Amino acid sequence: MRSFVSVWVLALGLMACGDDKDSGEADLEPVSGACELVAELDSCPACYDGVVTCSYGEESVTEGSCGDCQARVALYGQLCDAGVEDSRADIEAGISCSDPE
């Protein structure tokens, strides 16, 4: 009987000491608009229309692209990596793509 009580106390102690991550609640961090966009638009058509420069704020990327797809995706990735926290709507409205100068 004594060993049964010891095992029961040990089991209760282990359950009480588990970390919060095991409680089924995920630690969700907000995802920036740029990171959302790069996650959704990670593939482009396999064609080549020429070199395109896409810019947003201080960030700019020049890539060989099909339309502006590859350059746009590369810019989203650069914005995400740089920690730009602008909303998705602001990024989509403020991005510009054109032939390189």
Task: Describe the 3D structure.
The chain is α+β, with helices and mostly antiparallel strands. The chain is 44% helix and 17% strand. The protein has helices at 2-17, 33-40, 69-81, 88-94; strands at residues 50-56, 59-65, 96-98. Helix 2 (33-40) packs across helix 3 (69-81). Mean pLDDT is 79; it is low at 1-25.
What labels would you give this structure?
single chain, 101 residues
Main beta-sheet strand count, sense and barrel state: 3 strands, antiparallel
What letter string, H or E per element, gives the SSE order? HHEEHHE
**Whole-Å distance between the termini?**
84 Å
Fraction of residues in helix: 40-55%
Number of domains: 1
| Rounded Rg | 24 Å
Please identify the structural class as seen in this structure. alpha+beta
Strand content: 15-25%
What general form does the structure show? Answer: globular
List low-confidence stretches.
1-25
Number of strands: 3
- The residue-averaged pLDDT reads 79
Total of DSSP H or I helical runs spanning 4+ residues? 4
Topology:
Layout: H1 2-17, H2 33-40, E1 50-56, E2 59-65, H3 69-81, H4 88-94, E3 96-98
Antiparallel strand pairs: 1-2, 1-3
Helix pairs in contact: 2-3, 2-4
Can you summarize this structure?
The protein is α+β, with helices and mostly antiparallel strands and 101 residues long. Helices cover 44% and strands 17% of the residues. α2 (33-40) packs across α3 and α2 packs across α4.
